[in-house]
Amino acid sequence: MTNVEPSDRTESAFEGRADLFGSPSRYDLVLTGIPVTFLFTYLIATQFFGTTGSAIATGALVSGVLVADGLFRRPPIP
Question: Is the pTM of this model over 0.70?
């Protein structure tokens, strides 16, 4: 085991918050991906197709894949 010398440098506010939240887990990324998917498919579908119905349907299909992967393919194990 090695001895670690304390540093004289003070932590910035960002570094303190980064330690508080830690790194995101895989499931945090899946939960973030669902609304982001809806947003991108809405923007793309309304530009190319001009209807919101196709945007919602496409967003639901792609988000369904994320949900199925997060719940059934690799479920969280306590």
Answer: no
